[in-house]
Amino acid sequence: MGSSALVIFTEDCTGRPQKTAGDEEITSRVSIAELDTIRAALSEATFWSGEAEFAGRSRSVLALKHFSSHALLVLTDPHPATPGHDAGLDMVTYLWGIAARRIQEKVADAPPSYLLESRAASAERVRVTAELTDLHSTTLETLLAALRSSSLDDALARSTVTDLTAKALVGLRTLSDRTADLAEEPVAKAFERLREDLRPLTRFGGLEIEFIEPPLNGRGLPGEVAHAARAIVRGLVLAMMEQPGVSRVRTQWDCDGENLLINVRDNGPGTLATDAPSIGRLDRRVQALTGNLQIDVMPGWGVDVVVTLPLDLQARPTGEVAEWNLAARELEVLQHLVAGQSNRAIALKLGISENTVKFHVRNLFRKLDVGSRTEAIALAHSHGLR
After folding, report:
1. E strand or H helix at 275
2. How crowded is residue 17: how many other Cβ atoms within 10 Å of its Cβ?
3. In this structure, CATH architecture of domain 321-382
4. Residue 294, SS3?
5. PANTHER family under this entry (predicted)?
6. What percent of the chain has pLDDT over 90?
7. Is there a contact between 337 and 346 (Cβ–Cβ < 8 Å)?
8. C-alpha count within 13 angstroms, C-beta hemisphere, residue 209
9. Pick from 61, 84, 280, 358: most CB atoms within 10 A?
10. How far is Cα of residue 21 from the mean position of the Cα atoms in its chain?
11. Is 0.70 topped by the overall pTM?
């Protein structure tokens, strides 16, 4: 089955909820609102084909939704145009199931470098969206004031345009809220998803898990903090279960307005090896978000773990940035990389060609002694570069 473009939409990847391939005229213009509309149209169905507003105009699309994660795959201009249950559709459905499950697995066990990159991209998206919202809101509110002016005697025209503009203003603010929702997750919702993640252990693992709910009015969690928190608790519970005699684990979340506070405690013999590789991986995940993990092993009484994850980006003191000997333009490119921007976006912002950006990126890799964008971003973050 052929298509002109492919778009994947998943809220699990907070930094980059869209993955695209194909016709750039389509992939560069598709919006989250359009993807949301198509996903809502699927309801309980697994696939849908037809005409839909996509990348700014009506197009023929084939959409498939992953059952457990609600991730969405959209193919534009599919061939054939009205696919049925044929071998082509069956193959696409099969491959999409594998890809969607793999995305879930990668996010569930995301390395620290992913968390750093995701947090930077989330923060940049929220900032840009806020700026655009303010700009367009001011424009539309000014237009409304002019159209309501008594100096305009065409009452019908004024009423019609006022209604249309008011609707556009509501739509703009809705899009802003939607973008914020992707970058932030209510703490109660994040905790409920943790409960669902651990349900198989209580059902099949013979383990009793006590959940102490966070406050309902607690501050929302940045997406990467929510994902990391669930993964950390899952990892701690599995590590605790490796001890003999563990039958009950208690997990509690709280929020003090600046940090997510996590406590996990078991009723085991207190024999957890704090230098185990699994604990080391969890500690690196915590450190990637500038958090803190403390383990108190009490022989005969159990293990008590306290994790603190800051909700805001924290600047770290920089000491080696000057020693990297970066040119002014290279430093600018690195800052845009840290913000999660592509080579093309950096080129547009700096008014240079994409090839020039690639040249600067190669120089950055050499000077920073790294082999990938992810390593460069992680290194820059570790030295307080934002």
Report:
1. none
2. 22
3. Orthogonal Bundle (1.10)
4. strand
5. DNA-BINDING TRANSCRIPTIONAL ACTIVATOR DEVR_DOSR, HTH LUXR-TYPE DOMAIN-CONTAINING PROTEIN
6. 16
7. yes
8. 26
9. 61
10. 19
11. no
Q: Put residue 55 in one of left, alpha, beta given phi > 0 → left and psi -120 to 50 → alpha.
A: left
Torsion of CA 193, 244, 248, 198, to 10 degrees: 10
> What is the token pair recorded at 257?
């307005």
Does an H or E element contain 82, and which?
Answer: none
Contacts of 143 (CB under 8 A, 6+ apart): 165
Burial class, 77, CB count within 10 angstroms (exposed 0-12 / middle 13-18 / buried 19+): middle
CA-closest candidate to residue 159, choices 145, 148, 170, 168: 148
Instruction: Answer for the pair 258, 312: CB distance below 8 angstroms, yes or no.
Output: yes
User: Does residue 169 carry a pLDDT above 70?
Assistant: no
316-356 pLDDT, tens digit per residue, is: 434 567 778 887 788 888 888 887 788 888 888 787 888 88
Beta pairing, strands 259-266 & 302-310: antiparallel
Q: What is the pLDDT of residue 85?
A: 55
Residues in the chain: 386
3-state secondary structure 297-352: EECCCEEEEEEEEECCCCCCCCCCHHHHCCCHHHHHHHHHHHCCCCHHHHHHHHCC
CB count within 10 Å of CB 334 equals: 24
